[in-house]
């Protein structure tokens, strides 16, 4: 199971990103543990400059803007 | 459709040339098309309604076409200027020149207000001076392609150019002053204690066709969001264009009213919207005889200074630094407003 974290301070783009990842994971039948990190101090631990950012198993795979559906599919 | 997409992916250069031709062709067609359209309608071309309709049918596609073209090109340019690369440019540069660089990079670096805080801290961690970071943060939302395109399309290149130069000046000088005041101790303690990081960029070259994708993405995101404001703005403009109640606002927002500029700046602070959202208001105020400097000061204040943004900034800045930031930027905008009113 993949552990996915979405980093973002709670803007609309971050919420859309979370929803989109859930959708794609459901559609592909991939089991994921999705966590949203909104606390700015925790976000800064990951060294990202732009949010929303996506971290999978400790590695930053995306930062800044909503990831495209194809990009998300490529993670699974 | 799949064949078109794959052709585009294989021939990004050809696509760009083709798209440029189509774009210019459409642009040249705007006036004749709007005249033809109005001629089909059962209204007198010379009547106020006819003139308002022609203005609306000409201006709407013109502004949308300009905006789509520029946002697309900027989306491609943005892909060259990631925040990471901008940070690398600015890290450990001495103040002064770096403020100019930061404000200028603010125009071309993709920026969303929800990223303001991570960006702010990330810049400081990599050794970008506080004042330089502020120059970037002031310029990025205020001097952007949407604001400039809309000003150009609606009020001409002189207004857009002045907005560009004066907006950059506010960002450069305000950042420089904040830097001179040495206010690093008014960052929240946890921000001061963040470990320094080395500014780096992943140097994998992105192929041109993926940059085109980011251009399309910007168009979808930005034009998709702002077209409605533009439509409302132009409708207001058209209504006034045809019926002309010209100097309604002149008595209290005109050039001769010295207190209009400070009032405009203060009125702009509690309001928060992006460059496109404020355009209908700008359009309405100007058309009713408000002075340009006053209106642009209002626009800058709405975009650059906002209460919600200060609430977010409070997580990383102590009150005193926020107050300084607001005061310095507000004074800058005030001066810009007076200069505009003086020059135009």
Task: Please outline the helices and strands.
The complex is a heterodimer of chains A (76) and B (344).
Chain A: E1 2-7, H1 12-27, E2 32-37, H2 40-45, E3 53-56, E4 59-63, H3 69-75
Parallel strand pairs in A: 1-2
Antiparallel strand pairs in A: 1-3, 3-4
Chain B: H1 2-10, H2 12-40, H3 48-78, H4 83-90, H5 97-108, H6 116-125, H7 130-142, H8 145-155, H9 157-180, H10 189-192, H11 208-243, H12 250-253, H13 260-268, H14 275-287, H15 292-304, H16 307-313, H17 319-343
The average pLDDT value of chain A, as a whole number, equals: 85
Number of domains of chain A: 1
Kindly report the oligomeric state of this protein: heterodimer
Kindly report how far apart the N and C termini of chain A lie.
Answer: 10 Å
User: What is the name of the CATH class of chain A?
Assistant: Alpha Beta
Strand order of the largest sheet of chain A: 2-1-3-4
Q: If you average the pLDDT of chain B, what whole number results?
A: 84
Secondary-structure element string of chain A: EHEHEEH
Question: Could you describe the largest sheet of chain B, including whether it forms a barrel?
Answer: none
**Tally of strands of chain B:** 0
């Amino acid at each position: 199971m993949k552990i996915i974290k979405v980093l973002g301070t709670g803007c609309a783009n971050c919420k859309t990103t979370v929803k989109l990842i859930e959708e794609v994971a459901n559609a592909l039948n991939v089991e994921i543990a999705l966590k949203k990190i909104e606390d700015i101090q925790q976000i800064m631990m990951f060294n990202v400059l732009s949010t929303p950012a996506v971290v999978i198993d400790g590695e930053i795979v995306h930062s800044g803007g909503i990831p495209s559906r194809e990009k998300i599919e490529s993670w699974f | 459709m799949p064949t078109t997409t794959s052709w585009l992916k294989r021939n990004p250069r050809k696509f760009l040339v083709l798209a440029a031709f189509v774009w210019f062709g459409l642009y040249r067609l705007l006036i004749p098309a709007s005249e033809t359209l109005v001629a089909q309608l059962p209204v007198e071309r010379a009547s106020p309604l006819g003139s308002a309709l022609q203005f609306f049918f000409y201006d709407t596609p013109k502004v949308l076409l300009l905006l789509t073209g520029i946002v697309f090109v900027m989306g491609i340019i943005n892909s060259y200027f990631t925040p990471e690369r901008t940070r690398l440019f600015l890290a450990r540069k001495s103040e002064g020149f770096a403020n100019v660089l930061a404000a200028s990079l603010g125009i071309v670096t993709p920026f969303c207000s929800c990223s303001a805080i991570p960006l702010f801290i990330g810049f400081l961690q990599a050794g970008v001076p506080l004042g330089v970071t502020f120059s970037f943060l002031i310029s990025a939302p205020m001097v952007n392609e949407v604001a400039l395109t809309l000003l150009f399309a609606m009020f001409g290149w002189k207004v857009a150019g002045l907005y560009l130069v004066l907006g950059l000046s506010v960002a450069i000088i305000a950042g420089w002053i904040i830097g001179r005041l040495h206010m690093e101790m008014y960052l929240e303690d946890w921000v001061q204690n963040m470990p320094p990081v080395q500014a780096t960029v992943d140097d994998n070259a992105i192929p041109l066709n993926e940059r085109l994708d980011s251009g399309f993405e910007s168009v979808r995101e930005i034009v998709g969001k702002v077209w409605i404001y533009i439509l409302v703005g132009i409708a207001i403009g058209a209504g006034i264009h045809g019926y002309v109640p010209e100097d309604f606002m002149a008595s209290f927002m005109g050039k001769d009213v010295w207190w209009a500029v400070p009032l405009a700046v203060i009125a702009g602070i509690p309001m928060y919207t992006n460059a496109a959202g404020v355009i209908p208001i700008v359009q309405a105020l100007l058309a009713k005889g408000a002075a340009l400097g006053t209106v642009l000061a209002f626009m800058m204040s709405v975009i650059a200074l906002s209460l919600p943004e200060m609430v977010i900034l409070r997580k990383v800045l102590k009150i005193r630094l926020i107050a300084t930031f607001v005061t310095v930027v507000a004074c800058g905008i005030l001066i810009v407003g007076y200069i505009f009113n003086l020059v135009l």
